[in-house]
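Please, structure for the following, as tokens.
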Amino acid sequence: MTQQPTFDEIRRAPKVLLHDHLDGGLRPQTIIDLARESGYDRLPATEAGALGDWFREAADSGSLERYLETFAHTVGVMQTREALVRVAAECAQDLADDGVVYAEVRYAPELHTSGGLSLDQVVQAVLDGFREGSDGRGIRVNSLLTAMRHQARSMEIAELAVRYRDVGVAGFDIAGAEAGYPPTRHLDAFEYLQRENSHFTIHAGEGFGLPSIWQAIQWCGADRLGHGVRIIDDIQVASDGTAKLGRLAAYVRDKRIPLEMCPTSNLQTGAASSLADHPIGLLRRLYFRVTVNTDNRLMSGTSVSKEFAGLVDAFGYGWDDLQWFTVNAMKSAFLPFDERLAIINGVIKPGFAQLKWQA
């Protein structure tokens, strides 16, 4: 029997990350430093260890709405160019240290303008930070620009994403509390992106059920689903383990629509009760286009390696499973086909082959 991958081995594997929030991945000490520099005086703790613990504990509420409240403190200290460059550079460094070779990191430009920055200045600062942090580290980091689903600026952010798509912005997203804010409220933005041949993903099926997924796909035309956990509600599993897919679940699987799953975060927001019961196990068995992501590394105290290690423990996954998740993610990235193929064949497969041989 092949030995299961260890955490240290997993860290050395080339990994791909599609769903990670810039304002959810700050280093606690960086938050403290930036708060001191900007005069932000509302932090719940001023020691890095205690502050990191507070974020994780506050996020463990089981409520998406309560989980989202923690971002007031990270966004609060990300209101200057210098702060955005630092946070983005450290994000790229931290991901590279975890073995990530390609990442799409999302953020909402509209949340970073209270200090006087324009939307364009916000985007440029983050791009500069990613470039600085990626230099010489064997990682490529692109941006996804997010519009908040409870606001009315999605068209403006969609136009911003198209304007910067050739210099590091890979696509568009909407995020925020799902209940009461369906993606169809932003239909004009999605139709504009489709006319511009641009990519977008939609947070759907995390805090709300199948109607959110259905609207994201069939009304809005999403390329990927952010989370998509509740697709499980359209699958019936018999006592003998056989599964019957409803029409929406079958469509998602047949069309190979990528699911940006974030196991630890899903537990925190109540989208799943335990890792062993997380829908990712069934969806992987049924060959949905599942990818493994972090969502918010600070709030979840996680990394891609930790997510993989948790799945190895919960489901007994081996190297072939981890490579399958990774190739899924690279296939689903908002990059040109030839560039995706080059990373799969030139980086991911050789990297996993070496680790499997050493094991």
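The chain has a mean pLDDT of 95. The radius of gyration is 19 Å.
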